[in-house]
Design brief:
With 559 residues, the protein is an alpha/beta fold. The protein is built from 20 helices and 15 strands. Strands 2-1-4-5-6-7 form a six-stranded antiparallel beta sheet, covered by helices on one side. A six-stranded mixed beta sheet has the order 8-12-13-3-14-15, sandwiched between helices. Strands 9-10-11 form a three-stranded antiparallel beta sheet. It is elongated. 31% of the residues are buried. The mean pLDDT is 84.
Length: 559
């Protein structure tokens, strides 16, 4: 639940620090005092849209921090752990908005994308506003409320994904059928190309090896001739290297005296004589064993010619041929009886349709059951709100045609009948503004009772309601607060008198600047505020007595 809210330089609020507890908290004050600042700030902390106008005049930035205790909110704990943002039982959401309209978001002190605030905020808090009266006229809102009440959001999401997959397969199948001739021509070309590459059967690195072999075979005569000449120069010619080295040794051996400085040189010449002799022997053996192979050369050149020709045909380098072979083979597999073939796509379409029908069928059953319960509970709340004759019906209208729809097998629409004997009609055609307010409140109260969201916020949902009905509204909101935490902005003294905690919003001017002030009222302050709400500017003793009675009754009713 929400435990603390700190607002700095937002709208006309310079600095606001509020502590929250369990139960129902009411925010009241004169029109224009800034009651919506708290709820708007919470909306921003939940990832709502921000603009530069939110920053207090003269300040560089607005700073909003909302602290939640998540020890009893497993879903929030899991989300934080999954994103490595968990910090014991506290969850701190922060939003900083610059005067140029840019904003930054933080969770437990760590910068994060704005959508993370929205995701986590949706788990922590649910905000109901008077503007939902208008959204209540849209069918998509009806479907969303029913699915939430039934607890089948995950099943509805699976159904949408099944429809999406089915529709994608259907589009691919339609394209294949429309382009059947073109696809067949492409298939035939692919088969021919793959067969050619299959016959070529080029292996990786083969071309390079063939080119090296071809270079050696094509120069066989030169290799043989030069090797023979080298052998002669080593040992067999009259002026061979071996003979010249031997002559050099003889000259040194015939020196009249022993010269120690030449010992190493003589040693090197002896070793050179041996190496030259061995080199000559190797060359003779090479020449004797070497055979030119014209047949192999022709074979190699023919193979290389086929490789080069295939590469030119596909306008690629020879090195790219193996990769081309793999790619065309895979593409052929897709089109020729594999994934993407008409037969395969038809089978996939049928299989995905079966999956959709199973999911959508389960969803329809859950919706039908939830709709009946929702109708009964909303009717009960409407009776308490002085609308006992208002008949509320959640109508499940089966889709026309046989094709699946993304949201299941039916459209969902709320219908009402204001008077007995009259047929039920859509809300927009029947309900007046005041009636719509009460119907909206009844639906929100019912849905909130089954909500797992720990903090519920109601922003002036009691507009257009008064008298004894207002007292019932207060009782409903306090009951919800008894099961968790409820925050509400209200103009009704009957509602304010029943809250557990009362926040009073006022504004004042100082040095040509306007400031908003929010204070927590004690019992006497609460009585005075209820009196103001009852009697306006001029409060009489009778008004104060009435307020004291209303406050005492509102608090005692629930003990």
């Amino acid at each position: 639940m929400l435990t603390q809210l700190t607002v700095s330089n937002y709208a006309i609020a310079e600095r606001v620090e509020l502590q929250f507890g369990k139960g129902m908290t009411a925010l009241t004050g004169e029109t224009g005092a800034g009651k919506s600042i708290v709820l708007d700030a919470l909306g921003l902390a939940m990832g709502g849209r921000a603009d530069a106008g939110a920053v207090r005049h003269g300040a560089k930035r607005a700073d909003i921090t909302a602290t939640f205790d998540v020890c009893n909110i497993p879903e929030a704990g899991e989300w934080l752990a999954q994103h490595e943002l968990d910090d014991d039982n506290d969850c701190i959401l922060r939003r900083v908005i610059s005067k140029d309209g840019r904003s930054r978001a933080y969770i437990n002190g760590q910068p994060c994308p704005l959508n993370h605030l929205k995701e986590l905020g949706g788990v922590l808090m649910d905000i109901h506003s008077q503007h939902q009266h208008q959204s209540l006229l849209r069918k998509e809102t009806h479907r969303k409320l029913v699915d939430e009440f039934a607890g089948v959001e995950a099943l509805a999401a699976d159904t949408r994904e099944a429809w999406k997959t089915w529709n994608q397969i259907r589009q691919r199948l339609t394209e294949r059928r429309q382009n059947a001739d073109e696809a067949e021509a492409k298939l035939q070309l692919l088969r021919y190309q793959v067969e050619e590459l299959d016959r070529l059967a080029l292996e990786g690195g083969e071309q390079e090896q063939l080119e090296q072999e071809q270079a050696q075979l094509s120069q066989a005569d030169t290799v043989l001739h030069n090797s023979h000449q080298a052998a002669l120069l080593c040992t067999e010619d009259e002026t061979s290297a071996a003979d010249l080295v031997r002559q050099a040794l003889q000259q040194l051996e015939q020196l009249p005296v022993d010269v120690p400085a030449l010992a190493d040189t003589i040693q090197m010449l002896n070793e050179a004589q041996i190496q030259i002799s061995e080199a000559g022997d190797n060359l003779r053996h090479f020449v004797e064993d070497y055979e030119a192979d014209p047949a192999r050369l022709a074979e190699v050149e023919e193979r290389l010619s086929a490789i080069y020709q295939m590469a030119r045909k596909h306008r690629i380098t020879p090195e790219e041929l193996p990769e081309l072979h793999q790619r065309l083979t895979a593409e052929l597999k897709v089109l020729d009886g594999g994934e993407g073939s008409l037969e395969q796509l038809e089978a996939e379409l049928e299989s995905q349709r079966t999956r959709f029908d199973e999911l959508a069928g389960k969803l329809s059953e859950a919706r039908a059951k939830a709709a009946a319960e929702l109708d009964q509970r909303v009717a009960s709340e409407l009776a308490q709100l002085s609308m006992p004759n208002m008949q509320f019906i959640t109508h499940l209208n089966r889709n026309k045609g046989e094709e699946p729809a993304p949201h299941g097998l039916e459209e969902i629409e709320f219908l009402v009948s204001a008077n007995p004997g009259q047929p039920a009609r859509p809300l927009a055609k029947v309900a007046s503004g005041g009636e719509l307010s009460r119907i909206s409140l009844a639906i929100q109260v019912v849905v909130a009772q089954t909500s797992t969201t720990p903090t519920l916020v109601f922003d002036e949902v009691d507009v257009g309601i008064g008298g004894g009905t207002a007292e019932v509204v207060g009782r409903l909101l306090r009951t919800l607060g008894g099961n968790g935490q409820v925050l509400c902005v209200t103009h009704l003294p009957q509602v304010a008198a029943q809250c557990h905690q009362h926040l009073f919003v006022s504004k004042f001017t100082e040095q040509d600047a306007t400031f908003s002030k929010i204070e927590t009222l004690d019992d006497q302050g609460r009585i005075s505020e209820v009196a103001r709400m009852l009697g306006g500017v001029d409060m009489t003793e009778h008004t104060i007595a009435h307020a004291r009675e209303m406050f005492s009754k509102g608090q005692a009713t629930h003990h």
